Amino acid sequence: MGLEFRRGHLQTMAKITFSISIIVPMIGLSLATDTLGMNRSISHGETLVSSDQTFELGFFTPGNSSKSYLGIWYKFSPKMVVWVANRNNPLADRKGVLTFTNVGNLVVLNQSNGVVWSSESSRVLRNPIVQLLDSGNLVLLDNSVSSSDESYSWQSFDYPSDTLLAGMKLVLNLKTGLERRLTAWKSMDDPSPGDYVHGLNYSQGLPQYEVVQVDSHRKIFRTGQWNGVQFVGLPSDSNPAYVPIFVYNETEISYMFEVQNRQLFSTMKLNYLGVLQIFVVNRSKSATWNVMCAFPSDLCDFYGSCGANAICSSNLCECVKGFMPKLPDEWAVRDFSGGCKRTIPTNCSKGEGFSEINKVKLPDLLEVTLNRSMSLKECNDECLKNCSCVAYANSDITGDSGCLMWFGDLIDMRVLEEGNYVQTLYVRLSASELGIHTYAS
Predict the structure, then answer these.
(1) In the predicted model, is pLDDT for residue 3 greater than 50?
(2) pTM for this prediction
(3) Do the domains 160-303 and 1-153 match in fold?
(4) How far apart are CA 215 and CA 330, in angstroms?
(5) How far is CA 118 from CA 45, 131, 145, 289, in A?
(6) Are 27 and 83 in contact (CB under 8 A)?
């Protein structure tokens, strides 16, 4: 994909990045409560409101659509819808009802009392209630037992739509395989599952988050792998509006965030163009949401924009030392997609070594091996004696341990700004190309 296409896409994206989808919830009679009990229901025009007046639940009709959905939005900003129940099965009119079944499931019924969505709880509840919490989490529980997170029969936080709220997890359970990820809307007017998903990739033993196009499985953006401190491609600046929390243990890998200022609200959204955005608003000043950051936001963010064996910096691509453009004529017109090839092939002869690339987002984990116990020196020696090893790096920057070795093309690298917990990549070169910054055995 050439630069000109990406520029056009970036221009289109820029128009979307700083706007919010036009949503028109059916705001009407609030039930003046955050809880709905058995033998009660909610129809169009009626809503539940969290006790702190932050979130509201009810039926809404998006933009120019004639269909309607059960959803949750910010009460002070109704256009910011954060969760949709029946996104796979919209109501054809505005006559839906939210109610309970006789075994305590929460359901949305259409005009003919057909079920268009169900919480599908596995437990029978004697006295079910549904509550909209101050966090924006909609929870179903049995009112006849004490309330706790463990006693929730069902909760909306376990079923994300396109939005991550504070305290909500994107998670991969390493024992059960359960995964929670964001799925974009189909369009600004259609909440049904769209073309892009944002979730965790753990296929090579190190987690990284990615935005992927569903049908083609094409990566749009990746954070870079976890390096022991952070996802290497994300900013590390501290911000009270968005404090990331990462869990990585034998049971689960999860990502969430917290907000440390009660006047601030933040949301992460995956929009229908595949752009991951973090919005923030200061309630004490206005109800206007601003984009704190967005990914991808420039050429270097787009996955593989420079092709193989090239590194991106300031929206330009440059071949890694020891490589040259495969298609020079294309590079002359700034179409970098063809990538780079070696100037002088390596032959595993005596005197080969490595050139350093500092402050880099490491290549994607495609053809790699990971040894968590090796030191950096041992990693150097191991890569050098394996003629197929083209590059290596330290996998964990918290100590001199962890060895990543690449055995194919180096894809999706970029120069990182100061302030990141940066890493160094060591790329194999022939003896005649070794410079003063060589790391050789």
Answers:
(1) no
(2) 0.87
(3) yes
(4) 28
(5) 20, 16, 22, 32
(6) no
- Average pLDDT on 283-297 reads 89
In the chain, the amino acid numbered 328 is: P
Q: How far is CA 325 from CA 332, 339, 363, in A?
A: 10, 6, 18
CATH architecture for the domain at 160-303: Orthogonal Prism (2.90)
More confident residue, 37 or 346: 37
Q: Is 6 helix (H, G, I), strand (E, B) or coil?
A: helix
The H or E element spanning position 254 is strand 252-258
- Chain centre distance of CA 299: 18
Task: Please say whether the beta carbons of 325 and 338 come within 8 A.
Answer: yes
Nearest CA-CA partner of 149 in 133, 163, 172, 161:
133
Structure tokens at 46: 């009626």
Kindly list the domain boundaries of the chain, sorted by start residue. Answer: 1-153, 160-303, 304-433
CATH fold group of domain 1-153: Agglutinin, subunit A (2.90.10)
The helix or strand, by DSSP H or E, that contains position 258, with its residue range, turns out to be strand 252-258
What is the rounded distance in angstroms from the CA atom of residue 21 to the CA atom of residue 11?
18
Whether residue 131 has pLDDT greater than 50: yes
Give the span between the Cα atoms of 245 and 258, in whole angstroms: 7
Indicate the range of 13-22, 144-153, 366-375, 403-412 predicted with least confidence.
Answer: 13-22
Compute the distance between CA of residue 271 and CA of residue 14 in angstroms, rounded to an integer.
12
Closest-CA residue to 214 (of 196, 191, 187): 196
pLDDT of residue 422: 73
Backbone angles phi, psi at 289, to 5 degrees: -85, 135
Distance CA 412, CA 303 (A): 6
269 with 279: CB under 8 angstroms? Answer: yes
